[in-house]
Design a protein that fits this description.
There is one protein chain. This protein is of the alpha+beta class. The protein has two domains: about 110 residues, no CATH class; about 100 residues, Orthogonal Bundle (Arc Repressor Mutant, subunit A), CATH 1.10.10.60. About 55% of the residues lie in helices and about 10% in strands. It has eleven helices and seven strands. It has a four-stranded antiparallel sheet with strand order 6-1-4-7. Strands 3-2-5 form a three-stranded antiparallel sheet, with no helix packed on it. A hairpin with a 2-residue loop joins strand 2 and strand 3. The protein is globular. The protein starts with 5 loop residues before the first strand and ends with a helix. The relative contact order is 0.13.
């Protein structure tokens, strides 16, 4: 499911397949489309969920380069990344793994680029509103043009504010649907034009209808 953040995963068991391509360790940026994740056998590993601005600082590259992409971890973190993966897999326990990972991430955070304060402010405002703020209003709050704000967001976040607003609205609708709210009520509460509009966004962002998403959750929660 799309969410407003980036992810890094290091597999200890079988590799994951993402849209059919195998990865032992990978990084994915913000995405406004579904990505099919598969594995066969016993999967294990460690996952790091980044906020958009945390990813910008830690990964150290313009986040637009990772938008709607999944890449091998060494392509982002450099040739020493496979060594870190080996050390994590070979560590005696999770306390040691988290200590190794924390140290590696903190080094990169200290040395990484600082996102623009205006981007941080507008991202926080948009998140607090679950995406229900106009881009023009956000730009006005920081005294920027819409074009400059969108370009800065693509650098520091990976997607523009309009695309992120769409994901935030979808995430709120998903929470309401999973909590049992009628689809028409969820559409109204989240600012969709109507229920078909909500259905279209679910298909575009999750690859499924709202009822299909709810069915998958219910099936997963049912004890065998």
């Amino acid at each position: 499911m799309p969410w407003v953040g980036a992810v890094a995963i290091i597999c200890f068991g079988v590799p994951y397949k993402l849209d059919g391509e195998p990865f032992d360790a990978f990084v994915g940026g913000l995405s406004d489309r579904p990505i099919l994740t598969e594995f066969v056998g016993e999967a294990a590993g460690i996952q790091v969920d980044f906020t958009p601005l945390g990813a910008r600082r830690c990964l150290g590259l313009p986040m637009g380069e990772l938008t709607n992409r999944v890449v091998a971890i060494e392509d982002v973190l450099g040739p020493r990344a496979p060594l870190l993966a080996e050390r994590l897999q070979g560590a005696p326990g999770w306390v040691e793994r988290f200590a190794l990972l924390d140290a590696a991430l903190l080094r990169r955070l200290v040395a990484g680029p600082e996102p623009a304060p205006e981007v941080a402010w507008t991202l926080r405002r948009l998140t607090q509103a679950d995406g229900r703020l106009a881009v023009g209003a956000l730009a006005a709050e920081v005294g920027w043009s819409r074009r400059h704000l969108a370009a800065s967001w693509r650098r520091d976040v990976g997607l523009g504010p309009k695309a992120v607003a769409r994901i935030l609205r979808f995430q709120r609708a998903l929470r309401l649907v999973r909590a049992g709210h009628p689809l028409a009520d969820a559409a109204y509460e989240c600012g969709y034009a109507d229920q078909p509009h909500l259905n279209r966004d679910f298909r575009a962002l999750a690859g499924a209808t709202p009822r299909e998403v709810t069915f998958v959750q219910d099936a997963a929660a049912t004890p065998l």
